[in-house]
Amino acid sequence: MAKYLLKRVLYMFLTLFIIASLTFFLMKIIPGTPFASANKLGPAQMEIMKAKYGLDQPVPVQYAKYIGNLLQGDLGISFQFNNTPVTDLMFKRLGPSMQLGAQAMLFGTIVGILLGIFAALRQNTWVDYSSTFVAVLGKSIPNFVFAGLLQYFVGVKLGWFPVLFWRGFEYTILPTIALSMLPIAIAARFMRTEMIEVLGSDYITLAKAKGASFFEIAFKHALRNAMIPLVTVLGPLAISLMTGSLVIEKIFAIPGLGEQFVKSITVNDYPVIMGTTVLFAALFVVIILVVDILYGIIDPRIRLSGGKK
Amino acid sequence: MENILEVKDLNISFHTFAGEVKAIRGVNFELKKGETLAIVGESGSGKSVTTKAIMRLLPPGNSEIKQGEILFEGKDLAKLTDKQMQKIRGQDISMIFQDPMTSLNPTMTVGKQIMEPLIKHQNMSKTAARERAVQLLKLVGIPKPELRIKQYPHQFSGGMRQRVVIAIALACNPKVLIADEPTTALDVTIQAQILELMKDLQKKIDTSIIFITHDLGVVANVADRVAVMYGGKIVEIGTVDEVFYNPQHPYTWGLISSMPSLDAKEEELYAIPGTPPNLLYPPKGDAFAPRNEYAMQIDLEEQPPMFKVSDTHYAATWLLHPDAPKVEPPEAVKSRMRKFMGTK
């Protein structure tokens, strides 16, 4: 197991290196400069600015320098935010995004899984239809619509939760709910399909023949088997939620990563783009590893190599 | 001998989009204490549906017991609530399924799966249940049971898995064991082992067995009595000797003729012509009549009642009517009958 994990971690670094390199060169292909007032600068001033940030050197040299810094954990300094180091900038903003994403993910999957289970157990009844209805809404209506509705009805009309900003747990509730609609929808649909399939399998009939009750069948026998495919979908979904949602962060005035990332692309803030990409990629490979380990926990048939004794 | 289970005039229908499929049309039989009753018949004849109905394992949404009684120790299982039925399943009546590769839960250790009914029905503690599980695995012939109960089904071979399924079924010493084609998915050498094991265990725990199969060779090996099913009905029922040495129904003749034999002189294996009836539109007369070369006019018009051949042997064919012409079984059946006699 330890050997396997070590191998996986090495591959993770290799993956990250490749992603960092590709992003670097792709970014260099995009025309434009990071300097906001570029059109006001003369050619000489432009040269000075470029030299200051090391952009006058040939691309391979820039690349070597960047990778060198990256290996030391230095992501450079941001061009747009008053020369703040990218690491400071990112980690300050990573917190809210991760918290919001994790909360939405946790709430969304739990609600979605329960909806899916009950829909499968009460197939073709009102329970099933309502669960489908919720899932279709969650998948087809963009989350900013939910955000607006929640802000207006729950925040303003009912006054239960604050509408804006990020100043404590109660501030996180509305954005969490708005963001969790998608995981609810996805988890509910997947869970329903899988549960129905699992409930029709021979080992469920055997469990019934043993005298197991309805709930024992659903939760002791079926749930774990139905979870296996869901884990595959939820991994990547967790990343996309935890790396920040531009729209939700904007609507609820949350100082998160999503907003910053989009802004840095429009102004060619190279270090921030690179830093964010590498960070997202790192999260991604870590989650993929977590998903693989989860598989082994849920399904004994796919215990990781070396894990079976 | 005392009857442990009696099925009386059982009628079961499935509601499909195409209409009502009358899968079981008036099945009667009884199971005596300690005996093995084999139910034979081709796919779709209603063997599995009958036994699933006894266990009440038919899908609740689209199946319906239209009429009839399933009497187990005097209680009508067809009328019990789900809760009452849960207490009977696994405790008094248990079941072995056809495909051991899919009938064990892949994410649960074998030990837990065996312990489940013990904890549920016999209020055993976990430790006691584990001890019993080890004993059961030993009983069904799995080596190193202490080690094996911690393993998952995928670490077992097909034959070993079927032994586990048998261990689960026997955990609570059931009074009735239903084996739904327990050897069909296994290869021949393993089949023989599993059959030996079942015969052996039946003696040890004194249970009655309903054995579903379409393999007449297996029937001769394990059963005391045989019921032949066709088109949702029992067409012939009797002791193994009676059904094998003195078959009465043309369908039974067909089944016996289509048994492959090692020293067969005939070039081709006999197959019963035609296909089974569509039970969406059950025939008015004898369901086997369209495939029956001995069919008479009355076979197409009226369903034959059960004619008594002996106290234990009944068959539903008009050929047994006193007015029917005397028909001899075909030569293939006779030659096989002679062979059965010879081997005995």
Automatic annotation (TrEMBL), chain A:
GO terms for cellular component: plasma membrane. The keyword Transmembrane helix applies. It is a multi-pass membrane protein. It holds the Pfam family BPD_transp_1. The chain crosses the membrane at residues 9-30, 100-121, 133-153, 173-191, 230-252, 272-298. It comes from Mesobacillus selenatarsenatis (strain DSM 18680 / JCM 14380 / FERM P-15431 / SF-1). It is found in: Cell membrane. This is Oligopeptide transport system permease protein OppB. The lineage of its organism: Bacteria, Bacillati, Bacillota, Bacilli, Bacillales. PROSITE patterns: ABC_TM1. The keyword Methyltransferase does not apply.
Automatic annotation (TrEMBL), chain B:
Its main location: membrane. Belongs to the ABC transporter superfamily. It is found in: Cell membrane. Keywords: ATP-binding, Cell membrane, Membrane, Nucleotide-binding, Transport. This is Oligopeptide transport ATP-binding protein OppD. PANTHER family: DIPEPTIDE TRANSPORT ATP-BINDING PROTEIN DPPD, OLIGOPEPTIDE TRANSPORT ATP-BINDING PROTEIN APPD. CDD domains: ABC_NikE_OppD_transporters (cd03257). Coiled coil: none annotated. It comes from Mesobacillus selenatarsenatis (strain DSM 18680 / JCM 14380 / FERM P-15431 / SF-1). GO terms for molecular function: ATP binding; ATP hydrolysis activity. Signal peptide: none annotated.
